[in-house]
Amino acid sequence: MREKVATIVAICLSLAILHIPNSCRAAEVYVEIRAMNWAYDPPEVTVTQGDHVTLNLTSLDSEHIFVIDEYNIRVTLEKGVWVTVEFIADKSGDFYYYCDVSAHRGYGEQGVLHVLPAGKIHTTLTVRFSKVTANIGDRVEVGGSISPPIGGVTIRLVYTSPDGKIKVSEVITADDGTFMDVFVPDAEGRWSVVASWLGDEEHFGSESDPSYLIVQAPFPILHVGAGVGALIAIGIVYYVIRRRKRAVLTP
User: Fold this and answer.
1) How many helices (H) and strands (E) does the chain have?
2) Torsion (CA) 33, 34, 40, 41 in degrees, nearest 10
3) Ramachandran quadrant class, 119 (left: phi over 0; alpha: psi -120 to 50; beta: rest)
4) What's the CATH number for 25-116?
5) What is the pTM of this model?
6) Which of 29, 40, 69, 153 is most open to solvent, judged by the fewest CB atoms within 10 Å of its CB?
7) What kind and span of H or E run contains 224?
8) How many Cβ atoms from other residues are within 10 Å of residue 136's Cβ?
9) Largest Cα–Cα distance in the chain?
């Protein structure tokens, strides 16, 4: 009887686990971090709350002391020796990992552990210019989308000019997650656009990779035409004057 009850309980637990959303399940995260004077590689690590995190740590040069205060982690790293640290990321937020040797942290030897709140859905953004080249003053469409599709959210578009100046535009996504903007460049060179949004209660914010547009001055057809017309007019006037002079000199 006990065996049957145990079996039923095991089945029920298995079914319960299967119905837990993927975003709520803890993950196994493995990260390698290398310490050096005066930095950590990588400088940022991102996990989700509840993840079981394994850090593989080493030093590339001299002795370092790796510390994350909020998770009570403090280990000494020697050159070429790997040390493993495991913990559950049970607190969300941004936490610094740093070197506690002398003034190493003061010289910039620190990084950030981002622990994202559990249950939220990650999103991705794409954005692109409708063409790769354009003239100054052209109207260029800029389109993109958010995935998974979310309608009615604000997307921030940052346009950067060749000399580093920034223009900002905001658009609202359609029901299918797409968005559209119109951009009119006013300077020659390479422009870029990046899309971003802050996220909401159910979704993490995200930022797109940049898209690029090469802008050039329009070919001065009108100016060339006017110049040619002026030369033709001058030639005609010169020809008429010569003919008149010849008529006067001819007996």
Assistant:
1) 2, 18
2) -70
3) left
4) 2.60.40.420
5) 0.51
6) 69
7) helix 221-249
8) 13
9) 141
Residue 116 β-bridge partners: 48
Both tokens assigned to 45 = 């690590």
Spell out the residues 6+ positions from residue 196 whose beta carbon is closer than 8 angstroms to its own: 125, 155, 156, 158, 205, 206, 207, 208
CA distances from 216 to 81, 121, 138, 183, 190 (A): 55, 41, 10, 15, 9
Identify the CA nearest to 63 among candidates 42, 83, 45.
Answer: 83
CA atoms within 13 A on the CB side of 225: 4
How far is it, in rounded angstroms, from Cα 129 to Cα 133? Answer: 9
Residue with structure tokens 């003919």?
Answer: 243
Backbone conformation region of residue 242, classed left if phi is above 0, alpha if psi is from -120 to 50, else beta: alpha
Do residues 208 and 127 touch, judged by C-beta distance below 8 A? yes
Amino acid found at 23: S
Of 1-15, 58-72, 182-196, the one with minimum mean pLDDT is 1-15
Domain ranges of the chain: 25-116, 124-216
User: 124-216: what fold?
Assistant: Immunoglobulin-like (2.60.40)
In the chain, the amino acid numbered 236 is I
3-state SS assignment for residue 149: coil
Same fold flag, 25-116 and 124-216: yes
The pLDDT tens digits for 147-169 are: 999 999 999 999 999 999 999 99
